[in-house]
Amino acid sequence: PPLALRDPTLLREAAYVAGAWIQGAERFAVHNPATGALIGHVPLLGAAETKQAIDSAEAAFPDWRKRAAKERAALLLRWRDLMLENAEDLAQIMTAEQGKPLAEARGEVSYAASFLDWFAEEAKRVYGETIPSPTNDRRLIALREPIGVCAAITPWNFPLAMITRKVGPALAVGCPMIVKPAEATPFSALALAVLAERAGIPGALFQVVTGDPKSIGGELTSNPTVRKLSFTGSTQTGKLLYAQCAPTVKKLSLELGGNAPFIVFDDADLDAAVTGALASKFRNSGQTCVCANRFYVQDKIYDAFVEKFAEAVGKLVVGEGAKPNVTQGPLINAAAIAKVTALVADARDKGGRVVTGGAPHPAGANFFAPTVIADAKADMRFAKEEIFGPVAPVFRFSDEAEVIRLANDTEYGLAAYFFARDIGRVWRVAEALDYGMVAINTGAFSNEVAPFGGVKQSGFGREGSRLGVEEYLVVKMLAMAGL
Ligand code: ADP
Predict the structure, then answer these.
(1) Running DSSP on this structure, what letter comes out for residue 163?
(2) Is the pTM of this model over 0.90?
(3) Pocket flag, ligand 1, residue 5 (CB < 6 Å)
C-alpha cells in the first residue's frame, strides 16, 4: 500500500531547482528496502540542472548575506517548527525509504530539527576581532564572512540529519546551499524542501538536485562558483571528490568512514558496557559511520561480556521498521547483505565463533540477523574493514598498551568508545586514542552542541557545535591606515 501520510503533499516526485519543482527527461524509482515496494519516482537530473541551481544560488547570495543574522534565524526557526509539526510524516517517509524503525526515524527528525535552531542561534554570534597592531599607524580587524555558494552531497543512513547539519549553518551565516541527496533516500530531502518553501525560505537558497551522482557531483566540484563542498559518505567517494575539488581550490568538509573500536576494560561496569555496546553497534542496524566495528574486551570479563551481550542481541526484534516494537530494520540493499554475509563467512573460516545470529534473517531479502562473533582475530576482514551492518566481532586483549595499539591500528579515526572506571586509566586512554570523538562509558554521543568529525582518513571539518559555522565562513582581514 502507498504511504498513508497526514499531508500527502510532503511526498514530492520532483526536484527543487531555482525555486521551482522540476521534472527531468528521465526519472528513477525509489523502493522500500524492507519490502521492495515502490515508493515513487524522482527526476534523474545531471550537470545542466545542477548548473542552473548553482547560477540561481549565486544570484541569491548577495541579498541573503546582507540580511541580519536575526532575520535569517527567524526563517530557519520557522522551518524547524514545520519539521516538528510534520514529524510523523517525515518519520514515515524516512522509514519507508531508509528502513530504520519508526522510533529511530522519529528520533532523527528531532535530531535533524535541532541543527536548525542551534545554528539559527549560533549565527547571531559570528563575532569578528580587533587585533592590536604592531605599529600605531593602523588598525587591524578580522571579519568573518559567508564563503558563498555551498554544495552538500549526503548519504542514505541519516536522510534528514546529514542535510540539516550542513544546510543549517550554511543558511544561518548567509550562504545558499545545493544538496544532492543519496539515490536511496531522496524523498526525505525533498520533503525538507517542501517545508523550506512553506517556511518562506527563498527557493534559490536550499535546492535539492536528485539524479546521477557522477554528473551532478562533477558539476558541483568543477564549477568555480561553488566555494564549499560538504560531503558525508564513503572514504572512497570522499577521496574522489577531494581530488575533483582541487582544480578550483574549494573549501571542503569530509565526514567519511570509520572503524570504531569499543574497548571494555575489566574495571568497567559490565551492564553499562552491554547497554552501550547495543546502542553503538545496532543503531540503524549497524549502518552508521560511528557504529562500533571492533569490540576489544579484557581477559577477565571477556566470557561474561560475550554471554550478556549475545543474550541482549538475541532479544532484538528484526522486521519492517514501520511495524510496532521492531528494533532492527533491513539493510539498505542486496549489496550490503552480500558484504555482511562475506565478512561473517571469512570470520568463521578463520576460527570465529558465532554466538548468536550469523545468517540472513527470514524477515526479507535485505534482512540480516543481529550477530555476535567471539574469538575474533586480527586477520579477519572486519578488523580492517568497515562492517556497516549488524555484526559485532569481539576480540580478546590483556593489557592497556596493547589495546591502544590495536585500537589505533587503522587508517580511520572517527569515533572510539571505551568503558572503564579507574580515573587514571580513563584519562590515559582518552588521550591515547587517535580519534575525532571518544565516548567514555556511553554508547551514544551525537547531538547538535558537540563537535562531530574525524581525523586521519575519516576526514576533516566539524559539524554541529559552535565550530560548525566555521565550515561556511572565511576570514577577511582589514588593515586600516591613513588614520
Ligand atoms: P555508500 O557506499 O554508503 O552509498 P557513497 O560515498 O557512495 O556511500 O555515497 C554517499 C553519497 O555520495 C551519495 O549521495 C552518493 O550518491 C554520492 N556519490 C557516490 N559517488 C559519487 C560521485 N562519483 N560523485 C558525486 N557523488 C557521489
Answers:
(1) H
(2) yes
(3) no
